[in-house]
Write a structure and sequence with these properties.
The complex is a heterotrimer of chains A (382), B (358) and C (296). Chain B is mainly alpha-helical and 358 residues long. Chain B contains 15 helices and six strands. The N and C termini of chain B lie far apart (60 Å). Chain C has one domain: ABC transporter involved in vitamin B12 uptake, BtuC (Orthogonal Bundle). Chain C contains twelve helices and two strands, in the order ααααββαααααααα. Chain C has a two-stranded antiparallel ribbon with strand order 1-2. Chain C is globular, with a radius of gyration of 19 Å. The chains are: A alpha/beta (382), B mainly alpha (358), C mainly alpha (296).
């Protein structure tokens, strides 16, 4: 018995020897992502991107000599879990900052918690309410929906389109987009004559496509969603022999959806960050080097094509790392450092934060794109 | 009320946990303990329905959501546009309306939390009666499917209506002041009182159900579980007892929904999802169906672990596995396994086998 | 409503309906021999599609589909042998919970094998944009494959259960298990066989519809709920009823788009189910006696 106790003691000592020096210097970063569940197509690439970046940083010896310790919590897109995890990360793990959540609904639930606990939150969700009104500790990396909407409407004006149909998926992304489309349309003299919301798990949308097709006023369709069903919209429209232009949101920025829609994806017009066309950018573009590197590393490591969704998490962690490198492991200083970050190139655009703007991107973060021969290319008009 | 005594040890444990966490500086555990207590309140209600009355419900997350969503929407959505309508005036005259200004200085007019809670729980009870009358006539698969269908409809409605925030759910739900000095809220500073509010509610619920099960009602329910026809022949009004239990469990679920929503400061459609209902059924099954203490224990333990993210990306997988294993090997719940007895049996059998070979 | 729109809705409804019907037939096969509703039926559909897509890297499509169907049948057999076979007269409640557990586990296995992304088989004929004109409306050729596949399955099952000796033994099992045992039929093997058959049907459905609906690890639950709805609408256990009810529900869903917002579509089909359950639990086409003693 004595022998066992001494062995146990030795084991405990050995473990603590290993663990203690590492713990003393680590910078803890929490992440709440929907790795499984209904929004896993967001959370999956986001979690993988974070792991990759943190591994790279640590392989280079960390930030100013301290390694990053990443704690990823899988919320499965449930707000109640996000709330529980946020409290856990803040109080128990005492993280420096939290990255995520993946969806707007979850982010809105923990916005106040992070604000109260003065822990920086870098959301990977799209809705504008996250940063409007501004909460001093809450930031977001995906581009604003309203800019995407304006980009689309500007293109429509050029094409002489004034009556449109809106389709949206029943996710937070679709909801926020539909809202912005409805709000901004009058500004551009555009009228929404048909609007429908479809389920994120829809199998086939030919009936609803038939319904809006029957309205002869419709000159173009805008589909706002982030789920695989958006490929189905494209297919059903083309199968019905309906040739009006189809606009998609920046949620279409995943080559898998193009592959899924196949020939039907040709000619879809949508705004997105430049990650998708990194290789065709001119050499002097500030984002080019970084985009190419992220894409190359991600694709080599995970054997799947990089999407703009993973890019949002990549931006969050690189912004955070830049702030830490500048001011060290202090969450109040890190928050201020992020707010003062200017001209910081990321996958979503070039970030310039301020006290009023916790998104830091302007409308030029978007580029209109289209699909040609199964690939994303810059859209240059007809 | 002799059952009051039987929950005293539990009360001791509740206080013990508080003292222990406060002594070891791990008070943060109380956050998940509080949330688990509310889920367990639903689970003991479902336990009575499933275990004692023998009626499966794959739609109890629906009642939780009715409670949570209604209370959240009523206390959060501003009534300013309807200021002068008859209904608002009526509510105002009986003191059910709160007016004031929100964080950004806009005029705000919402239903007071007590009134909202009352409306939410009554609505859940009313829906339980309306749904329960036809549903409880069904048996087996039909009953399972009907309750599942009810749950799906609630989920769809929450997801489709703008009033309930569609996919985002409802955020920034205000705290619920129960009495002066007692408030359900998720603020870090209110943690200890919320821990006691949640566990206090759970204990009251437990005493209530334990007494009920020990009374004539409980015996009647067990009779129904054994055989509907036999109980009916003995003069038990089976359909009335079943309905009462159904409504009771719905009320428990709705109260849990109201309280947890105010504690979390929000609710989302995932609370109404089919997986949630299945999870509640799983926990009741693990606890041993007709075993309130088992349901309570498993409800707290499994929810606590799940909410702390212990299962990581395997959260659903763990519950699926538990469901299968329990139903295959211990249909009377994990507490029914007399492990020592089983081991002895195994050992003896092994010994016999070896002796047989010789 | 113009004729064109009418036909378009009708065709959309028939597409949904045929898919629902195939899943419902899978439910019925198992229900008839065991009295169990297999809540994991949707996962057979998912496995079929996913396995065929993975096999497509190594072999031509017809072979990949055939092999996927066979592999899924093996999975079906394994599920029955591991989880169902050795239970002695389990209660309905217990069986419901076990099959729900199997469904959750299968889904989790799938997400850890294939990941969360969507995949699909290529269109059997033509591609994503090809369509055939039908009375002024246009439908994808794949829809015809789905309709043909479900029709073939019904015919195949009809012949199988009426003319082959195994089929007749399975029917005997269904109508009276005790009597069947007394006649020397190995009822346990018949149950395994019903799982194999049902898994095969599901897998084939998963392959045929994959180009239209895509395949994803969590597609099973939604399909199972719709399939179950249809199985009950048509009267549990009746294949003909399942097909009729499937098409009926599909068409109602398609036409409901024209009057109610799409967001409520699922709520409507579930509400129909609830009403049927309350008013006519034996289904639209089933009679009370037939519910107990059903033909396939």
């Amino acid at each position: 018995m004595k022998k066992f106790a001494s062995k146990l003691l030795m084991a405990v000592m050995a473990v603590s020897l290993l663990a203690v020096p590492a713990l003393a210097e680590n910078i803890k970063v929490g992440a709440i992502l929907a790795v499984t569940g209904g929004a896993s197509f967001l959370g999956g690439p986001e979690a993988r991107s974070l792991e990759m970046v943190v591994e790279e940083i640590n392989a280079k010896g960390g930030i100013n000599g301290s390694k990053i310790e990443l704690i990823i919590k899988d919320s499965a897109a449930s707000p109640e879990k996000a709330i529980s995890f946020a409290k856990q990360l803040i109080e128990e793990d005492k993280v420096l900052a939290i990255i995520g959540p993946s969806t707007s609904g979850e982010t809105m639930k923990i916005k106040n918690i992070c604000e109260e606990a003065e822990t920086p939150l870098l959301s990977c969700a799209a809705a504008e309410v996250i940063v409007n009104p501004v909460a001093s500790y809450v930031f977001k990396t995906p581009q604003k929906d309203s800019f995407a909407v304006k980009k689309i409407f500007m293109e429509m004006k050029k094409m002489g389109i004034s009556k449109i149909a809106v389709l949206a998926g029943n996710t937070g992304f679709g909801k926020a987009g539909k809202q912005q489309l409805t709000d901004i349309a009058p500004e551009f003299g555009i009228e929404i004559v048909e609007a429908e919301v479809y389920d994120k798990k829809s199998n086939d949308l030919s009936a609803v496509v038939a319904k809006i097709k029957a309205n002869k006023d419709v000159q173009a369709v805008v589909n706002w969603s982030i789920v695989p069903a958006q490929a189905i919209v494209a297919k059903n429209m083309r199968q019905a022999g309906w040739e009006v232009p189809l606009f998609q949101s920046h949620g279409f920025g995943n080559i898998k959806y193009v592959e899924a829609a196949g020939a039907a994806a040709e000619g879809i017009i949508f705004p997105a960050g430049r990650l998708l066309i990194a290789d065709t950018l001119p050499a002097d573009n500030p984002q080019k080097a970084l985009l190419m590197e992220y894409k190359k590393n991600y694709e080599a490591k995970f054997n799947e094509s990089a999407s703009t969704f993973g890019g949002h998490a990549y931006d969050a962690i690189t912004i955070l790392a830049a702030a830490i490198a500048e001011v060290g492991n202090d969450r109040h200083k890190v928050r201020a450092a992020i707010e003062n970050l200017k001209n910081f190139p990321g996958t979503g655009g070039v970030f310039s934060f301020s006290a009023e703007d916790h998104n830091g991107l302007d409308i030029d973060a978007f580029q209109m794109m289209t699909v040609k021969d199964g690939k994303f290319v810059a859209y240059t008009g007809k | 009320m002799k059952k009051l005594l039987s929950v005293l040890p539990l009360l001791a444990v509740v206080i013990g946990v508080h003292l222990l966490t406060s002594a070891t500086d791990t008070m943060y555990y109380l956050t998940q303990m509080t949330m688990s207590a509310y889920y367990s309140l639903l689970i003991i209600g479902l336990c009575v329905l499933m275990g004692y009355a023998g009626q499966i419900s794959l739609g109890h997350a629906g009642f939780f959501a009715i409670g949570g969503y209604l209370s959240a929407a009523l206390t959060t959505r501003s009534l300013v546009p309807y200021q002068d309508t008859a209904l608002v005036n009526l509510l105002d005259s009986v003191g059910m309306i709160l007016s004031g200004h929100d964080l950004y200085g806009e005029a705000m007019l919402v239903v007071s939390p007590w009134a909202a809670c009352g409306i939410a729980v009554c609505t859940a009870a009313l829906i339980a009666v309306i749904i329960g009358i036809p549903v409880l006539k069904l048996k087996g698969h039909y009953l399972a499917m009907a309750t599942l269908g009810f749950g799906i409809i609630i989920y769809r409605v929450a997801l489709a209506l703008e009033y309930f925030g569609e996919a985002d759910g409802i955020s920034e739900v205000p705290p619920f002041p129960l009495l002066s000095g007692l408030t359900i809220s998720g603020n870090f500073s209110d943690r200890i009182q919320n821990y006691y509010i949640a566990w206090g509610l759970l204990l009251i619920g437990m005493v209530l159900l334990l007494n009920l099960m020990d009374s004539r009602v409980g015996r009647a329910l067990r009779g129904i579980h054994g055989s509907d026809e036999a109980a009916g022949a003995m003069g038990v009004n089976t359909s009335r007892f079943k309905l009462q239990t159904f409504v009771l469990s719905a009320v428990f679920a709705a109260i849990a929904g109201v309280c947890l929503t105010h504690y979390n400061g929000g609710i989302g459609p995932s609370e109404a999802g089919v997986m949630k209902s299945v999870r509640y059924v799983a926990i009741v099954a693990v606890g041993g169906m007709a075993n309130l203490w088992g349901a309570l224990l498993m409800g707290v333990v499994l929810n606590f672990l799940s909410l702390r993210g212990v299962f990581g990306s395997y959260d659903d997988a763990v519950f699926g596995l538990i469901l299968i294993l329990i139903m295959l090997f211990a249909p009377n719940g994990i507490l029914s396994l007399n492990i020592r007895h089983r081991l002895k049996q195994l050992l003896r059998r092994g010994k016999q086998d070896r002796e047989g070979e010789v | 409503m113009t004729t064109e729109l009418f036909i378009q809705y009708l065709m959309a409804g028939i597409t949904y309906g045929s898919i629902y019907a195939i899943v419902a037939i899978g439910f019925n096969i198992i229900y008839n021999t065991t009295g169990i509703i297999n809540f994991a039926q949707g996962e057979f559909v998912m496995f079929g599609g996913m396995i065929a897509i993975s096999l497509l890297h190594f072999m031509p499509m017809p072979l990949a589909i055939a092999l996927a169907v066979i592999i899924t049948m093996v999975i079906g057999a394994l599920i029955e042998i591991c989880f169902i076979r050795w239970l002695k007269s389990p209660s309905v409640l217990r069986m419901i919970i076990i099959t729900i557990g199997i469904s959750i586990l299968s889904r989790e296995v799938a997400v850890h094998i294939w990941g969360e992304s969507i995949r699909s088989l290529p269109y059997f004929v033509g591609n994503e944009i090809s369509s055939i004109p039908v009375f002024g409306a246009r439908i994808s050729p794949q829809v015809l494959w789905v309709v043909a596949a479900s029709a073939l399955m019904v015919i195949f099952l009809g012949i199988f259960f009426r003319t082959t000796s195994i089929g007749r033994e399975m029917r005997a099992c269904a109508s009276n298990r005790k009597a069947a045992t007394l006649c020397g039929i190995n009822t346990q093997n018949m149950v395994t066989l019903s799982f194999i058959l049902s898994a095969g049907m599901g897998a084939l459905a998963g392959c045929v519809m994959s180009p239209i609906t895509y395949s994803q690890y969590d597609m099973g639950t939604g399909l199972a709920i719709k399939g179950f709805t249809v199985a009950i609408l048509g009267g549990l256990g009746s294949s003909g009823g399942a097909v009729t009810a499937g098409i009926l529900l599909g068409v109602i869903e398609a036409f409901s788009v024209s009057v109610v917002p799409l967001a409520f579509q699922d709520a409507i089909s579930i509400a129909i189910l609830l009403i049927i359950l309350f008013v006519r639990p034996q289904g639209l086409f089933g009679s009370k006696e037939a519910a107990g003693l059903s033909e396939f």
